[in-house]
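The protein record minuted underneath.
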Amino acid sequence: MASNCGSDDGGGTSVQQTQFTKLQADWTVSSVTGTPGGPDWNDEFSGGVLSLAAGNSFSENGEFAYTFTVPDGVVTSPWPANGLWKFGSSATSSVTRLDSKLSGGGSNNADVPMSYSLESGDKTLILEFDLPEGVNYSIGGRTGSVSGHWKFTFTRP
């Protein structure tokens, strides 16, 4: 397991800071699979953008902002429109979406652990997570169940 406070390059940069730099970007949805409603959600989320830590400065063990912008017509999403995230137990492979800190707009606001990987020279981000029964986020005043396993693949330039 990687240490969150040790140096990974001998230059004093922590593992968290290195990963933060890699993740801090606008990521465009390239594919989505989810168990609710069928295996393929690509059409619904095509053009969606996850902005991680935009405008945030790094702080060790910090909490960072995100926004998730969905295309018009998406009614059900496993992502709130915005919130906070932090690194999980291994900064190189896990993050936690801090849904417990959401103010309204959802139910069953428990934090959501996510596994992640970076591929293709850190230009592809894969996030996988499970949402329990009863989780829903309002989009355009409508809600729908989003419980189940989700896998989002994002790319950036």
Summary: The longest strand covers residues 25-34. Confidence is low (pLDDT under 50) at residues 1-9.
